[in-house]
Amino acid sequence: MPRVVTCTFCGQPIKPGQGIMYVRLDGTVERYCSSKCFKSAVKYHRNPRRLAWVRKAKAQA
Ligand SMILES: [Zn+2]
């Protein structure tokens, strides 16, 4: 069990007890650091590469 996981959307580390774990119907486990990332991915179907506020985190990965 990983203690620190990274956000599926923005790539930032998530501490234990924080964030949202979302399981899709096909069984894919996705973790989001905030409701901002969760809504952007699930509700609005946004591409992280097109958002200015995730560009920095994606460049490091
Ligand atoms: Zn995030």
TrEMBL record:
Residues 7-45 form the TRASH domain. The keyword RNA-binding applies. One of its GO terms (molecular function) is rRNA binding. Binds 1 zinc ion per subunit. A zinc finger (C4-type) spans 7-37. Binds to the 23S rRNA. This is Large ribosomal subunit protein eL24. Its cofactor is Zn(2+). One of its GO terms (biological process) is translation. One of its GO terms (cellular component) is ribonucleoprotein complex. Keywords: Metal-binding, Ribonucleoprotein, Ribosomal protein, RNA-binding, rRNA-binding, Zinc, Zinc-finger. InterPro entries: L24e/L24_sf, Ribosomal_eL24, Ribosomal_eL24-rel_arc, Ribosomal_eL24-rel_N, Ribosomal_eL24_CS, TRASH_dom. Transmembrane segments: none annotated. Part of the 50S ribosomal subunit. Forms a cluster with proteins L3 and L14. Belongs to the eukaryotic ribosomal protein eL24 family. It holds the Pfam family Ribosomal_L24e. It comes from the Archaea. The keyword Mitochondrion does not apply. Zn(2+) binds at C7, C10, C33, C37. PANTHER family: 60S RIBOSOMAL PROTEIN L24, RIBOSOMAL PROTEIN L24.
